[in-house]
Amino acid sequence: MNRLLTKDPYRVYIYTCFSSQLFFTFIFTVNLLYHVKIVGLSPLQLVFVGTVLELSVFLFEIPTGLVSDLKSRKLSIIIGYFLIGFGFLIEGLFPYFITVLLAQVAWGIGYTFTSGSRQAWIADEIGEERASLAFIRGAKAGNLGQVIAIPLSILTGYFMINLPIIIGGLCMVGLAVYLIIFMKEENFKPLDKDEITSTWGSMKGNMGKVISHSKASFIIRMVFLIALFVGFYSEGFDRLWMSHFLEVSNISNLADEQLVVVMGGLQFIVVLVSFVALHWMNRSAIHGNLRHIYVFLFVGSVLIIISLIGFALSSYVVGLLTFYIIIQVTRQVMYPLEDIWLNKIIPDSSTRATFFSVKGQVDAIGQIGGGPVIGVVASGFTIKIAIIVSAVLLAPVLFLYKMILKQSKE
User: Fold this and answer.
1) Maximum Cα–Cα distance for the chain, whole Å?
2) How far apart are CA 228 and CA 60, in angstroms?
3) Do 333 and 304 touch, CB atoms closer than 8 A?
4) Is 197 exposed, middle or buried (0-12, 13-18, 19+ CB in 10 A)?
5) What average pLDDT does the chain have?
6) Which of 1.20.1250.20, 1.20.1640.10, 2.40.160.20, 3.65.10.10 is the CATH number of 9-188+202-409?
7) Which residues make Cβ contacts (< 8 Å) with residue 74, sequence separation at least 6?
8) What pTM was estimated for this model as a whole?
């Protein structure tokens, strides 16, 4: 209990990673099933829901990042979790297409307040070197939260599919209250307000720095370009995989409570395997060497592309399960490495949150552009073809990683 009530930034960061993933997983174990079975969304509507979410992220990512850089990392994070919780409450209480869309706007904006701010806050408070370790251990703690959340979500959703969404939304609001009390911010250095006359002026100044550093750094340009292609492929797969799974495996005739158990069990396997993989990575030296990170991200991208095609073409449950698990576990392991990579190459700590926010915005642009294309393909042809197209959209990152690896030798 004393550890939970501490104001030590490292422990608060780890607890926040744990609890936020606990609540998110509690919600998302049933969220897509709720959209498909209860709200009754079509493949095109499923992708449109994701596009609305990503459009919200796109429009608010940089402005909220500037709130973090100008005003307070803590304030930004707290506002974010309040909005996320509110969005999920709307979604769980009102099972209609329009309310699901409104919920995406609310929690999408909330996400932008936390995106980048959490990483920037811990780096400010404990330093860049310890922050790299915190990113890995935070991901590991988040994975533990997922392991705990899934059985709880299955048990709760067994009686009512939308109940985990409602409870999870309330818990997100509770996390914001916890951070109001225990999160401290002592090393934050806001941008010099004497040089900034307005919010728009600060946006121009901060974005000018990001653009300037990007022009000067090949690696930073590659980070943003890779984020774009990752966005292109991810939205279609994330929204359509369950519809494809239910269609191909012929388990859609199961009762709702049985589907909750099956899909929850699948998510549980994913987080267990991810936990083992992150534990191994935490004990390795991968995160301390940029070239090792590049190699790992390249190999991970190859695995995802092959598995996307395998998932699309599989006609048996075993194949679907295997390829889905490979895709999700690989992504879970790659996320903290991407954070470490960007954190190590940012040249100006005062714009750290904005750099992370720009990366998030580039990813959102990719999802906004790629999602509708995948949705139209799924509606006009089949979901199988749409997922194969997703794999094709990700393929250019292999060339980009090869360019990075080639330059890193020089």
Assistant:
1) 64
2) 17
3) no
4) exposed
5) 83
6) 1.20.1250.20
7) 121, 179, 183, 184, 185, 188
8) 0.75
